[in-house]
Design goal:
It is elongated, with a radius of gyration of 28 Å. It folds into two domains: 2-107, RNA polymerase sigma factor, region 2, helix turn helix motif (Rna Polymerase Sigma Factor, Chain: A); 121-185, no CATH class. 17% of the residues are buried. Helix 3 (47-64) packs across helix 4 (74-107). It is mostly helical. Helices cover 70% and strands 0% of the residues. It has helices spanning 2-18, 22-44, 47-64, 74-107, 120-131, 135-144, 151-157, 163-166, 175-179. The protein has nine helices and no strands. The termini are far apart.
Length: 186
């Protein structure tokens, strides 16, 4: 019964806040601040981080409150937003730690020894290998070897269907000179 009364009161505050009442918005935030904080702390296990996430949650609630169609569902809606924000942060944090871990592993991998020369067979097969790539991959290969691509080349390799799209590239040296082959054969 008390939960139903609280839900009705929050529903009324939602309607008032949607109409522009700052007092009602403050009451809404006060009503869910402590429970949301405890919930976010239980997810992220760090009080300072939970405070930051809760601030993002309140910003998101503030921006999206006008689209809440069921005012009595405010509390559940706010928990859903808190969950998404917490998991968004945790995913970002996990990707970052995974990347750091991967970089540490890569630092211990010995580099392949080369004499600085590539075999003539590999060099001769390069145009054919590049020709088997998709148009977008060809453009990426050209950029990876540090060569700008002219708009005409982008059109010829099929990476851009129109001159307008292709003209976004800044031409300095055409890709033809890089591979020393004619792209019409690719």
């Amino acid at each position: 019964m008390a939960d139903e009364a609280a839900s009705q009161r929050e529903g009324w505050w939602v309607l008032q806040a949607q109409s522009g009442s700052h007092e009602a918005l403050n009451e809404l935030f006060r009503s869910v601040q402590e429970p949301l904080f405890r919930y976010v702390v239980s997810l992220v296990r760090d009080q300072h981080l939970a405070e930051d996430i809760l601030q993002e949650v309140f910003m998101r609630i503030y921006r999206k409150l006008r689209w809440l169609r069921e005012p009595q569902a405010f509390r559940a809606w706010s928990y859903q937003i808190a969950s998404r924000e917490a998991f968004r942060y945790l995913n970002r944090e996990r990707r970052w730690t995974d990347q750091v871990r991967d970089e540490a592993v890569l630092a211990h991998v010995p580099a392949a020894e080369t004499d600085g020369e590539f075999s003539r067979e590999l060099i001769a097969s390069l145009p054919q290998l590049v020709g088997e790539l998709s148009p977008a991959s060809r453009a990426v290969v050209a950029r990876l070897i540090g060569q700008p691509i002219t708009p005409q080349v982008l059109i010829r390799i099929g990476a851009a269907p129109t001159l307008a799209e292709a003209s976004r590239a800044t031409p300095r040296r055409p890709i033809d000179e890089v591979f020393e082959v004619h792209l019409k054969d690719i």
